[in-house]
Design a protein that fits this description.
elongated, 174 residues, 5 strands, 5 helices, 3-stranded antiparallel sheet, alpha+beta, 13% strand
Length: 174
């Protein structure tokens, strides 16, 4: 949630919500505010990881362009620390996985779809689904897992930054 100066709470507004509000007399689109909220959280957490990646790259290359996307910063960080050891390599892999999951969550179509088959009485249940991937539903449970991966990736980026800061301090102290 985002707070304005008046402390009013703001949530992500999906295009479906805007459509349904403005054109309610026309055919509506089922909305999925929880999916949109989770996608927003994933994006915000990934931005935190991207910021830390930029700090880490800047320690190793003072002239680095930090306006590039996180994936590019991660690639540069991998190039700058090629003999990073297993722990650092695992953290870099986790960050790469998180960035890929972020991209999927952001670019996949988020919409509730009818959950077939009919569960009795002719009622169709709507299930919030971001997309189908390889004939598998990508649901809010998947988004929760992807958010957890984002949080873990931020932790991994901070660990890398700490290692680089510690090495820099040790190098300049001698």
């Amino acid at each position: 949630m985002i707070f304005s100066k008046s402390r009013q709470v703001h949530d992500v507004r999906s295009w479906r919500s805007v459509w349904n509000t403005n054109y309610s007399a026309e055919a509506g689109y089922p909305d999925s505010p929880e999916l949109d909220r989770l996608r927003g959280l994933i994006t915000a957490q990934a931005a935190e990881t991207e910021q830390v990646l930029g700090l880490a790259v800047r320690i190793l290359d003072a002239t680095a362009d930090l306006t590039r996307p996180a994936e590019s910063l991660l690639d540069q960080l991998r190039q700058l620390v090629p003999d990073s050891g297993v722990a650092l390599a695992d953290d870099l892999t986790l960050i790469g996985k998180a960035l890929a999951r972020r991209s999927f969550a952001v670019h996949a179509a988020a919409a509730p779809i009818p959950d077939w088959p009919d569960y009795g009485g002719g009622a169709v249940l709507w299930q919030p689904v971001v997309s189908t991937v390889d004939d598998r539903l990508y649901t809010d449970d998947d988004l929760h897992r992807d958010f957890t991966i984002q949080v873990e990736a931020t932790g991994a980026a901070v660990r890398i930054l700490r290692i680089l800061v510690t090495r820099t301090i040790a190098t300049t102290a001698h």
